[in-house]
Known about the structure:
The protein is α+β, with helices and mostly antiparallel strands and 133 residues long. It contains four helices and six strands.
Amino acid sequence: MEDGYKIRFDSITMEFPGVKALDDVSFGIKKGCVHVLMGENGAGKSTLMKILNGSYSATSGTVFINEQPKKFRTTSEATHEGIAMIYQELSYMPDMTVEDYLMLCREPKKGCFIDWKKSRQEAKEILKRGFEL
């Protein structure tokens, strides 16, 4: 694969008992480009994203971030590296702002309370840099 990918999947295979969900999947994601994963239900889109965000461990293959191999054991590890996933099945929360959604589950704390001022500032920084990894 060509260099310069922010995220690259190399020969990812994922097997569950009796099912091969992903079979030797390879592709890259470049900074500043829009990428779409399309396919029928059961095609493996969510499985691949769950491997990226630490929900699943691939049976084989490697995920690279900035050309460094990464294997997250938990979603918290992935989040710490800037990888997060928003599942479409989550309930819509109409009272939340874009800033609230960006900082969901990683709000900065001041003691045992959320530091809302710092949370808003961090969300603005994320938006300014364009979700850069």
